[in-house]
Amino acid sequence: IGLFTHERTRTATAVAIQDTQLSWIAHDAVLVLCQKNPEFALVLTRLIAERMAENQSVLLARLTAAEETSR
After folding, report:
1. How far apart are CA 14 and CA 4, in angstroms?
2. CA 55 to chain centre
3. CA-to-CA distance for 13 and 9, rounded, in angstroms?
4. Which residues contact 8 (CB under 8 A, 6 or more apart)?
5. Most buried in the list 25, 48, 50, 67, measured by CB within 10 Å?
6. 9: which DSSP letter?
7. Burial class (CB in 10 A: 0-12, 13-18, 19+), 19
8. Spatial separation of the C-alpha atoms in residues 24 and 5, rounded to whole Å
9. DSSP designation for 5
């Protein structure tokens, strides 16, 4: 998600439990992929939308729990 924000801020953290190889892709390369492969762009858009919906659900649950404990 952070790849498409103005600040390019990551919204998640990962921790490896074993030796891992890490790869990255430049922002411009992702844009080229999306332009050349609309199916890739659609899959990426769906993934981002699903993660945003999940993040919203988690936040709402946390807010609800906080309100209940403050009563």
Report:
1. 19
2. 9
3. 11
4. 2, 27
5. 48
6. -
7. exposed
8. 17
9. S
Whole-angstrom CA distances from 14 to 29, 33, 64 are 22, 24, 26
The answer to whether the beta carbons of residues 45 and 38 sit under 8 Å apart is no
CA angle, 1 then 48 then 38, to 5°? 105
Digitized pLDDT (tens) for each residue of the chain, 71 residues in all: 777 788 877 777 889 999 999 888 888 999 999 999 999 999 999 999 998 899 999 999 999 999 889 88
